[in-house]
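Deliverable D4.2, example record:
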Amino acid sequence: MREPNFWKLRRDGGFSIFPSLLSPVAYIWGAAGRIKRYYARPEIAAVPVICIGNLTAGGTGKTPLALTLAERLISAGEVVHFLTRGYGGSEHGPLQVDLTRDTAKNVGDEPLLLARLAPTWVAVDRAEGAAAAARAGARVIIMDDGFQNPSLHKDFSLLVVDAHAGLGNGKIIPAGPMRERLDDALKRTSAVMIVGRGHAADSLAARARNQALPVFRAILRAKNAPDLDNKTVFAFSGIGRPEKFITTLQELHAVIAGVAEYPDHHMFSEADAQKILLKARELSAMIVTTEKDHVRLQSAPVGSARARLRDTAVSVPVRALIDDQAGLEALIGEAILHARHPKRR
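Output generated by the structure prediction step:
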């Protein structure tokens, strides 16, 4: 889905009636979530669980951050498995993603991306997914999303917020982008991560610090990216905040001749692929896209426009560049040691 414009904070003094009209539904949504979390009895996994979650709907940079932290833990000798809901896929799981068999249609796009780095589990029931990962040899589980899911105990929860979008209009879905109240979320947070450039999350950072919560900052940077310096490109993406991808291309000094933006997790059709191929040809431009969009084309049938797009498009991987990587790793390391203590249970 696309984020409605009325979810954004109006800085021009304008007014939208939709948040007010939707406020009763938002109240019910928020109350239902609080009741569910209050009565939940989270399962404690056999191994430490690190949750990379967010407070709002839409892209905040969770997956690049999860990949970055997993890379660091793996380099330190940990056996990391990912656990995710598999948004956009039909699989309920628990299922370990198989890159030779699974597609975005059954497991979603993010699990395919995560599985390129480490074993990845898709599970609607996160507790069952964590148990399956532990049985398969995981020593640390990283959850990509799931902050609001109360079924599994988290040993460390990193709340990720977009620096430019912040909390939007500050209202709960569907009146705004928030999944729950800020105060409720901060009570379950181990640390806050603000991703990108901007000041929309500054007030949130101040509130977190007032509650003695560590606040970190990160930007998304291309990693092992193709040489796009002074290259004319046509960019397409179906992610939560496509402007982040454009910023990455600008940092790589690409000449952006055109852009095609689609809703988050968009499953590209033959018509979509044909339009992108045709437009790039008209502009004599190289086609570039995100890693997450590229994996969605992975299973395109031979000879289809989607297959031609997959084989033509160049993907640009990104990872999170964290301002105090050592400080965050120290906190996560302490949480892992504490979780492994025999008295935890």
